[in-house]
Amino acid sequence: MIGVRSPAQNLALATRARARMVDRVREMGVRDEKVLNALLQVPRHVFVEEALASRAYEDTALPLGFQQTISQPFIVARMAEILREGREMGKTLEIGAGCGYQAAVLSHLCTDVYAVERIRPLLDRARVNLRHLRLPNVRLKYADGMLGLPEAAPFDTIICAAAAADGVPEALKAQLAPGGRALVPVGGRQQYLILVERQGRQFRETRLDAVRFVPLLGGTE
After folding, report:
1. pLDDT score for 12
2. Which of 38, 101, 113, 173 is least crowded, fewest Cβ atoms below 10 Å from its Cβ?
3. Which helix (H) or strand (E) covers residue 121, if one does?
4. What average pLDDT does the chain have?
């Protein structure tokens, strides 16, 4: 039929759209080529609602349901670039797995990714999304992200995809390995990325970019 594309044509279109998305992220200031290549490797359209597939490669957050969103590609790349600066990310904890997109990107940058999600239907969706990509270094866990994942700690890197209203949770700091880094959005109406660097028993916090994330909530549902 006229106007119906083959799977190969759809794949080619998605690949070109993803390349354009990565070019935009580069133009916005991300310079870490390993991070940009990770974005290029992950088919974002797999992780969005079917009705939003045509917008998958826009540089914007998109709704997932349950008052959650899939993060803007630039923010995913920017956070990874900050955490990678001058080092490797190593064993990484992601707070707020959502649909699994950021975990898939991180899989290309980290030795191991432990991604926790407090909303069971979202976690189930992430499992389905990630199964198709066959990423052996990603582990998903149904858990309260405010508590981190103590059974798998310590972590070289912690990245949080939701904003903690009252500052970086102490549980997350405690699960950082010596020399480790955490990046956590903090605040309510005004939010900023807070970079936490563990130096021995001391923690140094640095306020970075203004951002906008859904709130970090405790408990599971």
Report:
1. 74
2. 173
3. helix 120-131
4. 93
Pairing of strands 112-117, 91-95: parallel
Residues 6+ apart with CB under 8 A from 4: none
DSSP 161: S
- For 27, counting Cβ atoms within 10 Å of its Cβ (0-12 exposed, 13-18 middle, 19+ buried), the class is exposed
Question: Does the pLDDT at position 23 exceed 90?
Answer: yes
Instruction: Report how far apart the first and last C-alpha atoms of the chain are (Å, whole number).
Output: 45
Instruction: Return the CA Rg of the chain.
Output: 17
Reading phi first (left if > 0) and then psi (alpha if -120 to 50, else beta), residue 219 is in left
User: Which among 86, 60, 54 has a CA at the least distance from the CA of 75?
Assistant: 60
- Please give the pLDDT value at position 3: 42
Query: For tokens 């021995």, what's the residue?
Result: 200
Q: Model confidence at 25, in pLDDT bands (50, 70, 90)?
A: very high
pTM of the model: 0.92
What is the model's pLDDT at position 49? Answer: 86
DSSP codes, 166-194: TSS-HHHHHTEEEEEEEEEEEESSSEEEE
Integer Cα distance of 106 and 93 in angstroms: 10
Cβ neighbours around 205 below 10 Å, total = 14
**pLDDT digits 0-9 by tens, 139-155:** 999 999 999 999 999 99
For residue 187, what are the β-bridge partners?
A: 191
Within 8 A by CB and 6+ apart from 104, the residues are: 42, 47, 129, 130, 133, 135, 138
